[in-house]
Design brief:
Blueprint (H helix, E strand, L loop, with lengths): L9 H15 L6 H17 L6 H25 L14 H4 L4 H19 L4 H20 L6 H10 L1 H10 L4 H24 L1 H7 L4 H5 L3 H23 L3 H20 L5 H28 L3
Length: about 300
């Protein structure tokens, strides 16, 4: 009988490396997945008038997890020379050298391939949109070196699930889908600027660009303005989709959460800015609950 594997045996090493891959994919930090999932669910429920196709639903939920994970891997690959110098990110697997750049690229490629394989089960329009979405996802991590507006690109990347969801559900991308896409871009500018406020001092030192740096001392007021535009855009979405009181109640909760987020970032304390960023999960959930309740109590 062969001796049992020791703590340093191949099985242990494999599990340890798989853990590093999971950390690289941010499976331990689901906030990014949730911020991508909520607008996807908004679109699926509205496009399906409260009854999204189960197969489309499963493909898109799986796609959200896969593409967010691939995006995180590509982000860390792009930032592998920056992350070791930032307190919040220096323990990431690539920054610590626990995962090699080649391993990261192969992992991102594998995740993207699985996601694209799922998309191939959808209609042609969805597949074509997915190709454009892949470009958005791959390009985003590198933009912070060239523009102060990577948050806008992130919003486009996250919001691209909206026209894709409409395409998969209805084989068309109506004006309503693009209106919702604009709302998601605005939302991403809000929460990712809050996120960038956490690292503003490190980013200034390292030459990394963001809306938090671009906005400067006007950051809170500009965020408040974008939050207001976001609520208007979501109200227009509801009006275009014929959503009623339950949806408006959800927007009311979202508006209250916006005020709470403004309170959190009032002193620009990094920890509180991060709490405001995390709070956007509840924002997305409030809007989705409003949509679900509308279709539950006012079926088509």
């Amino acid at each position: 009988m062969p001796p049992p594997l020791t703590a340093r045996g191949p099985a242990h090493r494999l599990l340890s490396q798989l853990k590093e891959y999971a950390l690289l994919m941010r499976l331990d930090k689901p906030i990014g997945t949730l911020l991508l999932l909520w607008p996807t669910l908004w679109a699926l429920w509205i496009a399906g008038e409260g009854r999204p196709d189960p197969r489309v639903f499963l493909v898109f939920v799986a796609g959200v997890v896969l593409m967010r994970s691939a995006g995180c891997v590509m982000n860390d690959f792009a930032d592998r020379g920056i992350d070791p110098h930032v307190a919040r990110t220096r323990e990431r697997p690539l920054a610590r050298g626990a995962v090699s750049p080649l391993e990261a690229l192969l992992l991102a490629a594998a995740l993207g391939a699985i996601a694209f394989g799922l998309v191939l089960t959808m209609n042609r329009l969805t597949v074509l949109l997915a190709l454009a979405g892949a470009v958005l996802t791959i390009a985003y991590p590198f933009l912070k070196r060239f523009t102060h507006l990577p948050q806008v690109w992130l919003g486009a990347s996250f919001g691209w699930s909206v026209p894709m969801a409409f395409a998969a559900q209805t084989d068309s991308v109506p004006v309503l889908a693009w209106l919702m896409f604009i709302a998601v871009v605005l939302w991403a500018v809000v929460y990712d600027t809050m996120y960038a406020m956490v690292d503003r001092e490190d980013d200034l030192r390292l030459g990394v660009r963001s809306t938090a740096i671009l906005f400067g001392d006007a950051d809170r007021w500009i965020i408040a303005t974008v939050q207001s535009l976001l609520l208007v855009a979501l109200w227009l979405v509801g009006r275009q989709a014929g959503l009623g009181g339950w949806y408006l109640a959800g927007l009311g909760v979202a508006a209250a959460l916006s005020l709470w987020q403004q309170y959190l970032i009032r002193l620009r304390v990094p920890g509180d800015c991060f709490r405001a960023f995390l709070n956007n999960h509840h924002y997305g959930m409030a809007v989705f609950i409003g949509i679900v309740l509308h279709y539950t109590f006012h079926p088509a």
